[in-house]
Specification:
By secondary structure, this protein is mostly helical. It has 21 helices and no strands. Helix 3 runs antiparallel to helix 4. It starts with a helix and ends with a helix.
Length: 381
């Protein structure tokens, strides 16, 4: 009988109920809210479902993220090994490979002015950097946090790993991916505040056709120029452009399909669950996390505003040929930000079609955020 009681006692002690804390319960509640937003509201479910589920797991079973040094048998938890791929910059780079294979760079090639809008939207990154310095973060920490302003999760993870800010990687990644998912909620009020109804109704001329040669040369030339100037961007820009070259060359259809489908989705699962698993109550529920989340929101708002305001200036300089709304797509949330530009424009005029025009700044924003990350690495490494 004593053996039975002792066995049941050990089972109870091993259960999550025996070890769970109030902080864990709070994080479990947050995970459930994210799952609701992802499944019911369909806010970027491909990102939020694995992230929130990783969050759920680690707050019930912390050992799933334990390193080998923290375990009795010297074997780490499952998601610890997934997370190493984040720290080593493998998964963020593979995400960029998939994005390149999925994305049409034609609108950017057809309208090179889009590069300016993508650059203007990086205002959020640099403003967040200086704000982070002002509220007490160090240079490297501030740089890692500021990339949230580009609404680019992979680049945020990549830079945090390169700058040795792995202790902040969880809050940074969750904030970045959360704001990417909430683009349809955050951006429209800012866009409407900074534009008039007349500006939102502007119809843009159809983009010129882009030749196959231009499409093939573009990723090659961008890689050469950007990597020669900022070699540290090679993993991100190189993979982005390689994926696009797969797509546009037309001679490696199997690689294009693999990079844009199977590989992309496998990487999203690994990256999402491992990032979510960094949000244990002990690591996430602190003042630094709150500061990061607030800084990320400010950065994202500044980035959106920077793109729209330059769009307004370009609208005036071109005599009303550019709809300022496409400037908001200069953040890196591809293609969600471009869809939001289309949606807000269609609300003003149902016959207005801005999606392809907005894809130019959207792609430019991806490149611009990678360049911003490369700039910080050149300064601090």
């Amino acid at each position: 009988m004593d053996y039975i009681f002792e066995t049941f006692g050990n089972l109870i002690k091993q259960s999550a109920f025996f070890n769970i804390t109030v902080g864990n319960l709070i994080m479990i509640a947050i995970a459930c809210i994210f799952l609701y937003l992802a499944i019911k509201k369909e806010y970027e479910p491909l990102l939020l479902v694995p992230i929130s589920f990783g969050m759920l797991l680690v707050n019930m079973f912390p050992a799933i993220m334990a390193s080998p040094d923290e375990t009795a048998n010297g074997v780490g938890g499952l998601l610890h090994y997934f997370f190493l791929l984040d720290e080593w910059s493998i998964l963020p780079s593979l995400i960029f490979l998939g994005v390149g294979a999925m994305t049409d760079f034609g609108p950017l090639i057809a309208n090179p002015k889009s590069f300016l809008l993508g650059a203007a939207a990086q205002l959020g990154i640099y403003s967040a950097y200086f704000l982070a310095i002002l509220i007490g973060f160090g240079d490297k920490s501030a740089a890692a946090i500021s990339i949230i302003g580009g609404a680019d999760g992979p680049t945020s993870i990549f830079l945090a790993g390169k700058l040795g800010q792995t202790d902040l990687m969880g809050p940074i990644a969750v904030a970045a991916y959360s704001y990417m998912a909430l683009v349809p909620i955050i951006q429209p009020p800012i866009m409407k505040l900074l534009t008039t109804e007349k500006e939102r109704k502007i119809k843009m001329e159809q983009l010129r056709p882009v030749s196959k040669l231009e499409r093939i040369l573009f990723p090659i030339i961008v890689t050469i120029v950007v990597v020669l100037i900022l070699p540290d961007t090679a993993p991100l820009v190189g993979m982005l452009m390689l994926g696009n070259l797969f797509r546009e060359s037309g001679v490696v259809k199997q690689l294009t399909e693999t990079a844009s489908n199977a590989l992309m989705y496998i990487v999203v699962i690994l990256l999402g669950t491992s990032v979510g698993a960094t949000t244990s109550a002990e690591a996430f529920l602190n003042v630094a996390t709150i500061k990061i989340v607030v800084l990320g929101l400010v950065a994202f708002a500044f980035g959106t505003a920077g793109g729209v305001l330059l769009g307004k200036l370009m609208c005036k300089l071109t005599g009303g040929k550019i709809n300022p709304l496409i400037g908001s797509a200069g953040v890196s949330a591809v293609p969600m930000a471009a869809r939001v530009s289309q949606k807000v424009g269609a609300e003003a005029d149902p016959t207005n079609f801005l999606l392809m025009h907005a894809m130019g700044p959207n792609v430019a924003g991806v490149i611009g955020t990678a360049v911003a990350a490369g700039t910080f690495m050149a300064i601090f490494l």
